[in-house]
Amino acid sequence: MKTLTVRLPDALISQIEVESRRRRRSKSDIVRERLTNTTASPRRRPATLDAIADLIGAVKGLPADLGANKKKYLRAGYGRKRPR
Q1: What is the tens place of the pLDDT at every residue in 26-84?
Q2: Has residue 21 got a pLDDT over 70?
Q3: How far is CA 25 from CA 20, 32, 39, in A?
């Protein structure tokens, strides 16, 4: 096995160290697993919140909390199944 030296951001190193301690595996093993998993599935889906983060707060005129007026919205028909 050959050695490769890379420079990683401090936050990523911290994640790797925490996972290494938690799983009682070497940091090298953790890095190898992450690299293998990334190349096996190059199109990793982002977390739901990450996928819509740029849309949060983009619509003007809505109440701050839609849950506050749930009865009003339920009377309007939102959340009910539509007949086919």
Answers
A1: 999 999 998 888 665 556 666 777 777 777 777 777 666 666 666 776 665 655 666 66
A2: yes
A3: 5, 11, 21
Structural domain containing residue 27: 10-75
Query: C-alpha angle with apex 81: 77 to 84, nearest 5 degrees?
Result: 120
Place of tokens 């096995």: 1
Tokens at 26, concatenated: 């070497």
| Residue 4 domain-assigned (yes or no) | no
* Integer-rounded Cα radius of gyration of the chain: 23
Residue type, 78: Y
Strands (E), the chain: none
User: Could you give the C-alpha distances from 57 to 1, 7, 61, 62, 65, in angstroms and in order?
Assistant: 50, 36, 10, 9, 11
d(C-alpha 49, C-alpha 73), whole Å? 24
10 residue type, one letter: D
User: Quick check: is 33 in a domain?
Assistant: yes
Q: How many domains does one find in the chain?
A: 1
